[in-house]
Amino acid sequence: MSRTAIVTGGGKRVGEALVRALIDDAWTVVAHVHRTDDAVPEGAVKSVADLAEADCAGRIFAAADGLPPVRLLVNNAARFAFDGFGNASAEEFDSHMKVNARAPMLLIDELARRHAGGEALAVNLLDSKLAAPNPDFLSYTLSKYALAGLTEVAARALAGQGIRVNAIAPALMLPSGEQDRANFAAVHELNPLRRGVEIGDVVAALRFLIDSASMTGQTLVLDGGQHFMNLKRDVQFLEGLNER
């Protein structure tokens, strides 16, 4: 069956792994990147767009013109920068919202506008911290709440068109922001299962959602039970808690 997937942030980290997995599963894949010189996995079609720009959805979907129908959209790309109460930033709030919430909204809307029947799926990458929030990375966190709301609203609105909308909310998988590798190693397994979440877990979750034709409006939380711990800060600031 010929079908196309679009993955934002498809040139590195989790996005790159998702693109490679989808290519292995015989999808035609459009891998979105931010800059023209950003590389994408071999076999993918590259699309370049700034997700902070209002025309990003049209530019990304234009790369799928002439390809098989778009049946999968993965909103993976995200802005991640620190702010918090006491140094909250209007600029960071706006920047996070544009990339992490507005762009996915526009992309899902573009998927719906171009949808010509049959089934399709949009998957939004959230963050497991929404299950037990803390105030670190304030604008980022609020933007992910907005994306979670978009997941449910879009699922409700688009089910009649045969478009499912779900989300995956993983915990820490790779060093993020200014986190160094030593700190990452110390907190990666900070959860009741004592098992760090891996990129392969997200790949498996995406494949599960693709195959789960009756599932929409749902979020798969991949955190080893970390939300049971009700952590008061982001994990990178809690290194000592991982001691047995």
TrEMBL record:
Pfam families, per the entry: adh_short_C2
GO terms assigned for molecular function: oxidoreductase activity
SUPFAM superfamilies reported for this sequence: NAD(P)-binding Rossmann-fold domains (SSF51735)
Keywords linked to the UniProt accession: Oxidoreductase
Family, as annotated: Belongs to the short-chain dehydrogenases/reductases (SDR) family.
Name of the protein in question: SDR family oxidoreductase
